[in-house]
Amino acid sequence: MRLLIRARNRQIAVDAGKISDVRGDFDLVLNFPDAEIHPGLINAHDHLHRNHYGRLGHPPYRNAYEWAVDIQAREADRIALGRARPRREALLEGAWKNLFSGVTTAVHHDPWEADFDAGFPLKLVRLRNADSLGMTPELAGTVGEGPFCLHVAEGVDFRAAAEIDALAERGVLGPELLAVHGVGMDAASRRRFRASGAALVWCPSSNLFLFGRTASAALLAEGVDVLLGSDSRLTGCGDLLDELACARRLGMLGDGRLLAAVGATAAYRLGLPVPSLETGSMADLVILRRPILEACAEDVLLVLVDGVPRIAHPSLGASLAPFFQHAEERTAGGVVRWTALPAAAWTPLQ
C-alpha cells in the first residue's frame, strides 16, 4: 500500500511503514495545501489508564503523597467508578487522547500491559520505571540498564526537596534517570541534579493544578535536558498540545527547546531514533493546519503510526474507508475524528 501526502511544506511518500521515494504510482493521494507535515510528537509522561476520571483533588497540596491520600478519602466513589471501566477501554482512551494531539509515541509510566502487544494504536516506549521514593521505596524497577523513569520531588515541601539527596545515596541520581516533575528542588538539590546528567520530564499543568507552581526557571535553564509530558487527566490539563501551550505561556523554555522536548531531546533520552521526514525513516507523522506551538487538537488533520493512518479529520473518512475493515468516528476532548481501530490493517478491501 503506497500513500502520497502533499502538504504545504513538502511531499511525503509512505510505503511499508516507512517514508519512501516520492516517485512512482500511489494507491492513495491526500492533499493538504493549507497544512504542514511534521514527525509525530513524543509524550514523555502519561498514565494511559487514568485519563477517563477527570481531575481529582482539592488543591493545593504539599506533595503528591498528600494528594494520593486525600483523593482516596474524598473521591472514593469517582475512583471506584473509574476503576470499573474495562482495562483495555481505559488504556485506549489514553491512547486516543495522545493520537488526537499528534502524539505517535508515549511513555506509560506504569507496568507494561499485555494490551500494548495486541494491536495497540499508539507506540509506547518500554522503560524501567518505579512510582516514587514514597510509594515504591524499594525502587525495584531500577534493575537493568537504560533510561529509568521516576516521579521525583513532586511537591513543594522539605520531603520533596530531600528526594534528590536520597536518590544520590542510592546511586540512582545519574544520566539514566528521567526525573518526572522536580517541582520541590531547592537550590542545593537543583545544583546536584543538574550536575548529575539526569534529565527532567516536565509536566507544568499537572504541577500548577496540584501545587500552584512548577519546576523553577533555575532548574529548567540551559544545561539540562528537558522532556515534556502531559501526565494523565487526573491532574494534567489535557493533551500534549495543551501542555506545550501551558509551557510556552510560562516562558521558561524557548521555542526551540520546547519543540525538542517533544522531539529530538525526548527521542535521545528515550533511546529512540531522531524524528525525521527523511527517506527511510519510520512514517510516524502528523499533519497540522497551524504551527505545532500554536496548535490544538482541532488542528490535527491526520496522524500516521508506522505508516498507518490512525486518526483523520472526518472529511478524509471517505478517502480512507476503502482501505480499512474497521473504522469509526469517535470524540476525544470534544474533537471528532475518523479513527482506524487498533486491529485495523492498512490494506485495500477486496
Write the layout of secondary structure elements.
Blueprint: E1 2-7, E2 11-15, E3 18-20, E4 28-32, E5 36-39, E6 41-46, H1 64-74, H2 76-83, H3 87-100, E7 103-108, E8 123-124, E9 128-132, E10 148-152, H4 158-161, H5 163-169, E11 177-181, H6 187-196, E12 199-202, H7 204-211, H8 217-220, E13 226-228, H9 240-250, H10 255-261, H11 264-270, E14 285-288, E15 300-305, E16 308-312, H12 317-320, E17 327-332, E18 335-340
Family: Belongs to the metallo-dependent hydrolases superfamily. ATZ/TRZ family.
Domain Amidohydrolase-related: 164-307
Pfam families: Amidohydro_1
Let me know the CATH homologous superfamily of the largest domain.
Metal-dependent hydrolases
Strand content: 15-25%
What is the molecular shape? globular
- The mean pLDDT is 95
Please tally the β strands and state the result: 18
Q: Number of helical segments?
A: 12
Strand order of the largest sheet: 5-14-15-16-18-17
Number of domains: 2
Q: Termini separation (Å)?
A: 13 Å
CATH class term of the largest domain: Alpha Beta
Poorly predicted segments: none
